[in-house]
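Appendix B. One record, verbatim.
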Amino acid sequence: MTAPTFSAAPAPATATATATELPTALRDRAVWIFDLDNTLYPASCNLFAQVDRRINEFIAAHFNIGMDEARVRQKQFFRDYGTTLRGLMSEHDVDPVAYMDYVHDIDVTGVQPSAQLADALDRLPGRKIIYTNGSVRHAENVAGRLGIIDRFEAVFDITAAGYVPKPDPRPYASLVERHGVNPADACMVEDIARNLAPAHALGMTTVWVRGEQEYEKAGVGAGVHIDHTVDDLPSWLAAVAGL
């Protein structure tokens, strides 16, 4: 097996885990919390591009405007509220169920089953939870396509979060309470760096699956809320699990 690529992100001198210590340091975490999109599957699958297009189609139809104007509005909602849905609900009382059903009606066949990821999750001790700004249905479709949905005990989705998206700290606290998570014994894995800040504040170990989009990288180097950076999640988890 090709050696996984991972590194310790910038951290204070008191950090307790280095890249070489990482597999043994994290192997016995009691809870693993995984983001879904562009984290459990690679961004190259282009699912988010489909979702993004559906979001703009929804906005264009709802406001009876062109796609260019819809994209401008979508970016403004995302910037101001953290998700487009939150902006649509707050400013225009959009039905969240209708919105989620529409934007997640996508083709997931570009996602290939990952035996390496499935094996690593099987061997990795601890409970496993998906935490997504999307819906349970979307998580089940995608994780089912990956062949890993049965490795997770729960999906904490945007509905469970009261339609309050990451990185607002409130749903992180709700997840911890609802699922009995001890943050000091938990690890959160995400592709959007700023979404790790609330997890770090609660005391979780944080792992950033390195992304190249500006919204994914925003905040990197501005603080110490990223404990570890990963380029290949299945290989990295396999190393943590001792495969």
